[in-house]
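Page 47, continued from p. 46.
Same chain as before, 331 aa.
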Amino acid sequence: MKPDLSKITCIEDLRVVAKRKVPKMFYDYADTGSWTEHTYRANSRDFEDIQFRQRVLVDMTGRTLATTMVGQKVHMPVAIAPTGLTGMQHADGEILGARAAEKFGVPFTLSTMSICSIEDVAENTSAPFWFQLYVMRDRPFMEDLIHRAQAAKCSALVLTADLQVLGQRHKDIKNGLSTPPKPTLKNWINLATKPEWCMKMLNTQRRTFRNIVGHAQNVGDVSSLSSWTAEQFDPRLSWDDVSRIKDLWGGKLIIKGILDPEDAELAVKSGQMPLWFPTTAAANWMVPHPPSKPCPILFLRWAVTLKFGWIAASVAAKMCSKPWRWGPRAP
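Result:
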């Protein structure tokens, strides 16, 4: 039975439904930040202050949001950002998200830490999607991920640069969200109140990190995934690695995680465009200035640089992470 969306009027409505339908440990994973969540809260406050400029007495016929992103035609300047564990928010969540993005004509980005694999999404969609890559110590596995993305005809590779050291997520610890999960009695009781979620999860075979399990060396099941993941994020990631990955990929490469103007300038000087300025950094980091703050500074410095002809850059789109997670759970 298709969900009735007639009473859903905004993203907040979807979030409220998700909180009611999704087990607490997975809902909290999506709607939380790291450490004290200072950066997470600051992001929300800062964006509340942004207002649209209103113009009047302008011919509005033929208006459109259609544009291009990294050479790809899109219906609006929005892309679906990569989010881990979405297939635990809703059964086959990444496939549903990719189908919705295809229907609305916007790019979908699949996370390395997704539940549905690259192949799962490719088999269930027809439009090319983007793939987000974490740089792991296991370089053969990382290279295999790139080759799998190429085989799936992904149209862009998104290289995450800001998750080489994991932040502490307090709610995940309290909820027992680990690999594999270690739920508390309270979580088991909570799970019993989510019958729809349970039934949908029982009706899918996709309940683990399918990009990793069966592909990484010595990772054959969820129990062996825990120790592998804990030691895999590589703190040595540098611009030299970016160059090697760019050559190996051979296609459109996007750097995700730039928060400082100096890093943005280094990226441009290295010939790397475009860049993805994330507000999702709050999920893993607390930073002195929230990601919502440095972005305007970066844009301003780029605009000044562009004026003097040193580099060329453009700011073209918004990447959507949390809102699309809520969508599949509408009543």
